[in-house]
Amino acid sequence: MASSDTPNSQLRLRVFAGPNGSGKSTVIKSIRDTIVNGRNLDFGTYINADDIASALKEKTFSFSSFNLNPKKEQLISFANISGLIYTKADLSHFTDSFDLKNQELITSPDLPPDRLAQITARYLREQLLSDNQRFSFETVFSHRSNLDIMRRAAESGYKVYLYFVSTESPEINKYRVALRVKQGGHNVPINKIEERYYRSLSLLKEAADLSYQAFFFDNSIDNEPYKLVGHFKMLGDQQNWDNIREDQISQWFRKYYLEA
């Protein structure tokens, strides 16, 4: 789904965004299987906080595959400026929640690893950007820090690709998260699902305007393929849009991008 006319040395950042329960994983798998010039699309290093949380629940998460060897103090300092720590008590609780030895991140089995996983994912993103590495990440896109890293990547010479997945209503997302929990997946509080749904969509236009290419997918209907409701690629300083029939355009895309 990406252009193949850029040199192999071109830095790329791919951002897979959308509210909890939108079905990002389905879209990501399909895009991973896309063949460009005879091979799968290059994601670079892929970062997903949910994957990190799963690794921590099992045992440990290792920085070795990222060629990083941070100290605990570095992760604490980063957490303090990450926007995910709000009080001194939060920072103290975070500090006590993990240990870091020989590139292995270890958390207490009786503590939920979600906050540690989120901060670790943010830390990895910053390190990869600083090292000028190709990378991709998945996010519910409910925090402006995602815009910040997209902006800094573009300013550093990256081509930024946005893949945004949504549904027509947060009620769809609530239903899917509840179903996922019944199947053993991770839960998200109902109020957070709705809050993140609207916050994510409110950042959509700014995110797209930072992108070299942007793909907008609607995944509202269960047991049916998701559909592309919008796509552009920059040609010079102009957005070159695909022609998509009017009746194929979703209301959320119309409201939060076309009419925003």
Question: TL;DR of this structure?
Answer:
This protein has 260 residues and is α/β, with parallel strands linked by helices. The protein has helices at residues 24-32, 49-58, 72-80, 88-96, 114-130, 145-155, 170-182, 190-202, 204-209, 251-258; strands spanning 12-17, 35-36, 39-40, 45-47, 60-62, 98-101, 104-107, 135-139, 159-166, 213-218, 227-235, 238-241.
Note down, in words, how this protein is organized.
The chain is α/β, with parallel strands linked by helices. The chain folds into 2 domains: 11-44 and 134-260, P-loop containing nucleotide triphosphate hydrolases (Rossmann fold), CATH 3.40.50; 49-132, no CATH class. It has 10 helices and 12 strands. The chain has helices at residues 24-32, 49-58, 72-80, 88-96, 114-130, 145-155, 170-182, 190-202, 204-209, 251-258, and strands at 12-17, 35-36, 39-40, 45-47, 60-62, 98-101, 104-107, 135-139, 159-166, 213-218, 227-235, 238-241. The chain has a 7-stranded mixed beta sheet with strand order 4-8-1-9-10-11-12, sandwiched between helices. The chain has a 3-stranded antiparallel beta sheet with strand order 5-7-6. Strands 2-3 form a two-stranded antiparallel sheet. Helix 2 crosses helix 5 and helix 7 packs across helix 8. It is globular. The model is unreliable at 1-7 (pLDDT under 50).
SSE layout and pairings?
Blueprint: E1 12-17, H1 24-32, E2 35-36, E3 39-40, E4 45-47, H2 49-58, E5 60-62, H3 72-80, H4 88-96, E6 98-101, E7 104-107, H5 114-130, E8 135-139, H6 145-155, E9 159-166, H7 170-182, H8 190-202, H9 204-209, E10 213-218, E11 227-235, E12 238-241, H10 251-258
Parallel strand pairs: 1-8, 1-9, 4-8, 9-10
Antiparallel strand pairs: 2-3, 5-7, 6-7, 10-11, 11-12
Helix pairs in contact: 2-5, 7-8
Protein name: UDP-N-acetylglucosamine kinase
InterPro entries: P-loop_NTPase
